[in-house]
Write a structure and sequence with these properties.
Layout: H1 28-43, H2 47-61, H3 81-93, H4 97-104, H5 106-115, H6 122-130, H7 136-141, H8 148-155, H9 157-161, E1 164-165, H10 166-183, E2 188-191, H11 193-196, E3 201-202, E4 205-210, H12 220-230, E5 234-240, E6 262-271, H13 272-277, E7 293-302, H14 308-314, H15 319-333, E8 335-337, E9 342-344, E10 349-350, H16 356-362
Parallel strand pairs: 4-7
Antiparallel strand pairs: 1-3, 2-4, 5-6, 6-7, 8-9, 9-10
The structure holds cytidine-5'-triphosphate and manganese (II) ion (MN) (3 copies).
Length: about 375
């Protein structure tokens, strides 16, 4: 087996949810390259290939040392021929021709630019590219039909491209707390996603909200949104209502992994001066974003208390860690995990949990804290 620098044995488990993956690791020079190929596969609608590259990258993130030779990769799981070829070339030549030509290709750059617009997915971006469009500017210039989300995405494009800092996340947390507390006292509000995993910056800020009295959370989102709208905080919002029903015979086989919580995808308006000094300013109303204003993507999710642990696990990420948890549950345990519940198909029953620790225990997994879920 693989030895690390101290001669200790590394036993690399094959599911990312069985491993600790810190935020900072030793192999960014390899993982960034593999993730370019993963992203390109996504752009080509090839999910299998994309996940294969992401799994390979994730294994390297969990290594306690920098990869220096192909010998270091012996006995590691999830490294397919293609990934190994790419790694070998980078170790020998400093870069991979496939990765560099992908990175520079017009198709890849246009897909990156267009899917970088809030509200634009791979299918839409691909159609626009076939029509000769390349950048968000092209969308405006040619007067493309845009839905409401895409209009906001184009309007706030450069703002939304800027990374959200932890200071900005804290500021938004204070605004969300003020909103929630004023419409329903006694709620619990949790910072989710990348910031819960310890990231210093993110592409958005994610929140999970619940109330310890089950049922109190019903209809909460629209009240929160009204409060935020009155304060002039929202540049854009789209709320979806809760559509989850627990079936006695187990979860329905659904094509999508999307959860069914009451949720809101939004764009908050912060004042740049406020986001520097750390004080929330919510006095102005209206939906313009002037030069002294900062636009930030915010996701709000409301969960019933009985599903809170599952929602917490499901909204902490990383996306690969979540995917691996569900794969582990299905393939190794004959269970179905979602952000709502865990269902055991052998016993035909739902396994309840109050905490993330209990869910890991139900799944027969060692508990991995959020800061080590950066798979
Ligand atoms: N998520 C989800 N359903 C969605 C969007 C996101 O369940 N429609 C979950 C993802 O699985 C992830 C978490 O919400 O666990 C956060 O997603 P996201 O904000 O996209 O990613 P982050 O990990 O927070 O990274 P970033 O810093 O880029 O925001
Ligand atoms: Mn291949
Ligand atoms: Mn996020
Ligand atoms: Mn998000």
């Amino acid at each position: 087996p693989e030895l690390n620098g101290d001669g200790a044995e590394i036993l690399m488990k094959s599911y990312a949810c069985q491993r600790r993956t810190p935020l900072k690791h030793h192999n960014a020079f390899l993982t960034e390259a593999l993730e370019i190929l993963a992203q390109n596969a996504e752009f080509n609608d090839n999910e299998g290939r994309s996940v294969a590259f992401r799994r390979a990258a994730s294994v390297l993130k969990a290594l306690p040392h920098r990869v220096k030779s192909m010998e270091d990769l012996r006995c590691l799981p999830c490294l397919g021929d293609h990934s190994q070829r790419v790694i070998k070339e980078i170790l020998e030549d400093g870069s991979s021709r496939e990765v560099e030509s992908t990175r520079q290709s017009e198709q890849f750059q246009a897909m990156k630019a267009l899917t970088g617009v809030f509200g634009v997915g791979v299918r839409t971006a691909d159609r626009w590219i076939r029509e000769g469009l390349r950048t968000p500017d092209d969308l405006i210039r040619t007067g493309q039909q845009l839905n409401r989300a895409q209009q906001a995405g184009v309007q706030y494009y450069s703002e939304l491209q800027r990374a959200v800092t932890r200071a900005e996340a804290e500021l938004i947390m204070a605004i969300v707390e003020a909103a929630v507390n004023s419409v329903l006292p006694g709620c619990q509000i949790q910072l989710m996603g990348g910031f819960r995993r310890g990231k210093e910056v993110g592409h958005d800020v994610d929140f999970l909200i619940t109330h310890p009295e089950e049922g109190k959370e019903e209809g909460l989102m629209s009240k929160i949104i009204s409060w935020l709208e009155e304060q002039g905080v929202l540049l854009y919002q789209k709320t979806t209502r809760n559509s989850y029903v627990e079936r006695l015979d187990g979860p329905a086989r659904s094509a999508s992994n999307m959860d069914r919580f009451e949720r809101c995808f939004s764009i908050f308006k912060l004042h740049s001066s406020a986001s520097r000094s750390g004080s929330a300013s919510t006095s102005e109303s209206g939906s313009a974003c002037d030069s002294g204003c900062r636009a930030v993507r915010v996701d709000l999710v409301v969960s019933p208390f009985s599903q809170f642990a599952f929602a917490t696990l499901g909204w902490t990420g990383s996306k690969l860690f979540e995917r691996e948890l569900r794969r582990w549950a299905g393939q190794e345990k004959q269970m179905t995990l979602s952000s709502h519940t865990l269902y055991d198909s052998k016993q035909n029953l739902y396994l309840r949990a109050q905490t993330e620790e209990e869910i890991f225990a139900h799944l027969g997994l060692e508990f991995i804290p959020p800061s080590e879920r950066n798979a």
